[in-house]
Design brief:
The complex is a heterodimer. Chain A is α+β, with helices and mostly antiparallel strands. Chain A has 18 helices and 29 strands. In chain A, the strands form seven sheets. In chain A, strands 3-5-1-12-9-10-11 form a seven-stranded mixed sheet, sandwiched between helices. Chain B has helices at about 25-35, 90-100, 110-120, 125-135, 145-170; strands spanning about 5-10, 15-20, 55, 60, 75. Classes of the chains: A alpha+beta, B alpha+beta.
């Protein structure tokens, strides 16, 4: 047998081209294209009273200038609200170019197309826009106070108000022996891929077709939106996703204004047009995430068992709501993690502010939810004087309770039902890995030496692999090469490798013979996109199913040719052969030739399939339930999400003088079901943890009261360098295969980042002896907190603002 | 507005290339869009991320902070110039593949050039040396651990390869 590839730490097939500079990222394409630059609002909130382009017209190399006045038909309508939800009471989206009013610094007002970007920017600088400034609404507090409105017709700045409840949480809390309340805050961060957004479009006037490339997480989504906006038949639009320099969520939003304006200009001008976002533009005109204020009430018994949990939170959705309520809905549901509170109520407002839009960033609302829940569990443990891990274990859903139905509706509109997971086993692994039971002695010894060390713990469950579906196409060419396509896109996750591993196993072929294409609507036009750690689950499953179809066909065609029973055949290293008689064999390429009855032989090999050579004269050459060619196309549509889970522990040391926070150890236990490629999964965990470190300790998006983003550069937005990440990340895997898909996989893309705010808050609280209730936390923040807590008995202070009732 | 145009010669990956650019043309744009060498990537255009790092006369420099006219006549090494003439990956490139040191690959060229130069000055790095070597480059995907491992692996591979070269020389009777 060929050795099994799934589960092996196979080196990535993507690497060779990327290592020699032969990757094809968006701005590497279209070298002859005209370039587009955007005039963006310098005001957070203003009426536009005039736009004067006269001076810009003198710029040499100028090709066109567009403002809202130049848009017509669907292009003049607001951009789509992609995910409608009944709880949205005032859904507002921006126009491709601002019409009368701007609502955040960075909103697109006009675009210039010129011979190159330098000249386009020259022209942008010469456009004079007159504004009448309006009072800006910045931050959740201001939005909630609603002294001023972002949108006149969105009272209270409320975009949506949503409540879900299981049981009677208020009554359960009131009746509980112990009660606590917590006020928590978490600030904005952002995906910040190293490559920003970018789009290139070519209009072919001869065939009246549009071809575009975009740095996106959904080529099919862009295709449908662009066709609708430009009034083109879907069949006339092709969208290709080239190599993408990171996404982390921000590139799932579509269509960006530039994604409709670039093709519009390309069609109007009759030449290729390209837009490449620069770094400042990415900060002020792409998307952010995370900002929330949370109020939690919890009732529990003396063992720490939660009897009732009520969470009220306020979510900052920025100036518009193109992606609906996905982030706050995920916060509100995934907050529950591996736990089963007796009764649960969650209520949130999604609020408008005059800032950049908020859409999913890796983790997508889960980091906030996990932070809320894990801070609560630490507070309960502190209140009762119990071990934090024991309180968690007390509240775990048990393996025997799987599948576990929370009685809530998840982000995909389907019931929140966990498919599998063994939380006690995960916790036992983590405690062993970090040395949990030895911690009190270590901490006491360190304290005796004047060192402040803290251990944090946080657990999460992550709904992954959401629907609606993905598809896969597998074709064996007459050369024996295997072409695989799926519609969703890749941003560095190694899909080409992982999917090739799956196909290699299903077909019994070498990975070297397999070529995988993602995110090209010409190759696979039906798809959803890459988000929610869903690619391996959905496309991986679909590709496996498609490969199984092909395998059945291979065996049927080969059985006819070899005069054998299909049951007696096996495929080994690209040869179909009779089991036990390896001499009776046929190459897959030959099977491919035979699968397509021919009238014309185009080469030596194809002679074998011509009409005087093959076929039963009593049957049609292509039988009724058959198709020519050796290919299969299948889809995987999950009934519900799969649920991966994990637990992290971190040990930090805080400097008694400078309040610097140093990571001593970082431990991860991770269960994403069946591992396709441990090397890739580990890389995903590393990257997620590093982003989590950034989000917990360094990254914030600092708006001033006027709505100006003060740190819109890599100089000021403190993304971690190597010096900020742990020197090692200790990882232990648990593999609880999902019963919901053919491979038992659950998805791993986001996991590493999810518990970061929670685990660092837990560790720093443990080190300092007072509760951390606002994240991220900088040394300055910690220094200030120490001053505020000076004089109190820090090591006995509760996280919560209320003492227990009994 | 575009100012005067300048003719210049850049020795890129050992090949002299002539081009004409406006004075304000960045070296990164010149390499990518005038000379078609798109392996050098631009991540921030303010010198912080390091994706655009190229070697100028062997020294790592941010090509987004250099005007093309300012390096007229100098030798530039880009990521396209790291592999051997037969296409064999350099030790650093091979180490990145071996250690899964890249994910999306966008920042990778800047790491490769930086490390290539770094290992010349520090051929036998410790893990701390490796972290120091890559301390000025941003990566959003990998969390850096595998890149640190790749630096150490590249040093190993370089030693092994130079050993092979020496062995081959001995085998062929050449005097080094």
């Amino acid at each position: 047998m060929t050795s099994r590839m799934v589960g092996q730490p196979v080196n990535r097939v993507e690497d060779p081209r990327l290592l020699v500079g032969a990757g094809r990222f968006l701005d590497d394409l279209g070298q002859d294209a005209a370039e587009l630059a955007v005039l963006r609002s310098p005001h957070a909130h203003a009426r536009i009273t005039d736009i004067d382009v006269t001076a810009a017209l003198e710029v040499q190399g100028l090709l066109a200038i567009y403002t809202y006045e130049d848009l017509s038909g669907p292009l003049a309508d607001p951009l789509p609200l992609l995910i409608p939800h009944p709880a949205i009471c005032a859904g507002r989206t921006q126009y491709a170019l601002a019409r009368d009013e701007v609502n955040y610094v960075g909103e697109a007002i006009a675009v210039v197309v010129a011979e190159n970007r330098y000249l386009a920017e020259d022209a942008v600088e010469r456009i004079v826009v007159s504004y009448r400034p309006l009072p800006p609404v910045v931050g959740v507090q201001a939005a909630r106070a609603a002294e001023h409105l972002v949108h006149e017709d969105a009272p209270g700045n409320v975009a949506a108000h949503f409540v879900q409840e299981v049981g009677d949480a208020a009554a359960a809390i009131a009746a509980a022996p112990f009660r606590l309340e917590l006020e928590l805050a978490i600030e904005r961060s952002a995906s910040t891929p190293l490559e920003g957004r970018g789009v290139l479009a070519q209009w072919d006037s001869d065939s009246q077709r549009l071809r575009m490339w975009t740095s996106t997480q959904t080529s099919t989504g862009v295709r449908a939106a662009v066709a609708a906006k430009l009034g083109l038949d879907l069949g006339r639009v092709e969208v290709i996703t080239p190599d993408v320099g990171g996404g982390f969520g921000v590139k799932i939003v579509h269509p960006w204004p530039e994604e409709v304006l670039v093709p519009m200009a390309a069609r109007a001008l009759g030449r290729p047009v390209k837009f490449t976002e620069d770094r400042r533009e990415h900060f002020i005109s792409a998307a952010h995430e995370r900002g929330q204020l949370q109020h939690i009430e919890v009732g529990f018994d003396a063992t720490g068992r939660i009897l009732g949990l009520s969470v009220r939170f306020w979510h900052d959705n920025g100036a518009y709501l193109p992606y609906g309520l996905i982030v706050p809905i995920i916060t509100s549901t995934q907050l529950l993690g591996p736990y089963k509170p007796g009764a649960y109520r969650v209520e949130f407002d999604s609020l408008y502010t005059n800032t950049v839009i908020v859409t999913p960033y890796r983790g997508a609302g889960r980091p906030q939810g996990v932070y809320a829940m894990e801070r609560t569990l630490d507070a309960i443990a502190g209140e009762l004087g119990l071990d934090r891990s024991v309180v968690r274990a007390t509240n775990f859903i048990q393996p025997s309770e799987m599948p576990y139905d929370h009685g809530l509706i998840f982000q995909d509109g389907r019931p929140l039902v966990y498919d599998s997971g063994d939380f006690p086993a995960s916790l036992a692994k983590l405690k062993a890995l970090v040395g949990w039971d030895d911690w009190p002695a270590y901490q006491a010894a360190a304290r005796a030496q004047g060192r402040q060390v803290g251990l944090g713990l946080a657990c999460y469950v992550e709904g992954t692999g959401v629907g609606p579906y993905e598809g896969g196409h597998v074709q064996i060419e007459t050369s024996g090469r295997i072409k695989v396509a799926t519609g969703l896109t890749s941003q560095g996750q190694g899909h080409q490798t992982a999917f090739a591993q799956i196909v290699a196993d299903e077909l019994g072929v070498s990975m070297d013979d397999i070529e995988v294409v993602t995110g090209d609507t010409r190759r696979f036009p039906y798809a959803v996109g890459t988000f929610a750690s869903r690619a391996a689950v959905t496309s991986g499953s679909a590709i496996a199913l498609a490969a199984r179809m092909v395998r059945r066909k291979i065996l049927k065609v080969a059985a006819d040719a070899l005069e054998a029973d299909p049951e007696d055949l096996e495929i080994v290293e690209g040869m179909v052969r009779v089991k036990g008689a390896p001499g009776v064999a046929m190459a897959l390429g030959t099977v491919a030739v035979l699968s397509n009855p021919l009238r014309y032989a185009f080469d030596e090999a194809s002679k074998a399939a011509t009409q005087f050579v093959v076929g039963d004269s009593d049957l049609p050459p292509v039988n009724e339930d058959d198709e020519p060619g050796l290919e299969g196309r299948d889809y995987y549509s999950p009934l519900r999400s799969t649920f991966a889970n994990g637990m992290h522990a971190v040990i930090v040391e805080t400097d008694p003088e400078t309040a610097e926070i140093k990571i001593l150890r970082y431990c991860v236990v991770h269960d994403c079901g069946t591992l396709i490629n441990p090397l890739i999964v580990e890389g995903q965990v590393h990257g997620g943890v590093a982003q989590g470190v950034g989000g917990a300790l360094y990254e914030r998006l600092v708006y001033d009261d006027a709505g100006q983003l003060q740190n819109a550069s890599f100089m000021d937005f403190l993304m971690p360098y190597v010096s900020e990440v742990p020197e090692s990340i200790e990882i232990d895997h648990l593999e609880t295969p999902s019963p919901l898909n053919p491979l038992g996989i659950k998805g791993a893309g986001e996991a590493g980042v999810i518990p970061s705010a929670a685990v660092f808050a837990s560790a720093i609280s443990d080190a300092e002896g007072f509760a951390i209730t606002a994240m991220p936390i900088s040394p300055s923040d910690l220094f200030e907190l120490r001053r505020r807590h000076a004089g109190t008995d820090r090591h006995n202070e509760s996280i919560a603002k209320k003492e227990p009732t009994r | 507005m575009t100012g005067s145009w300048h003719e210049l010669t850049l020795i890129v990956n050992e090949v002299p290339l002539r081009t004409t650019v406006p004075a304000r043309r960045l070296l990164s744009d010149c390499l990518r869009h005038d000379l078609g060498l798109t392996g050098t990537h631009v991540g921030c255009e303010h010198g912080v991320c390091g994706a655009c790092t190229v070697l100028v006369d062997g020294v790592p420099m941010r090509s987004c902070l250099l005007l093309a006219v300012s390096v007229d006549g100098q030798a530039i090494t880009t990521v396209e110039g790291l592999a051997g003439p037969d296409g064999e990956l350099s030790a650093v490139q091979q180490a990145f593949q071996d250690c899964h040191g890249l994910q999306c690959g966008f920042c990778t060229p800047g790491f490769l050039t930086t490390i290539t130069a770094g290992l010349i000055g520090c051929p036998d790095p410790t893990a701390d040396d490796a972290r120091e070597m890559i301390g000025g480059n941003l990566c959003r995907c990998t969390g850096y651990l595998n890149i640190v491992a790749a630096v150490l692996r590249a040093a190993e591979l370089t030693r092994a390869r130079s050993g092979e070269v020496a062995d081959a020389a001995v085998d062929s009777g050449q005097v080094p």
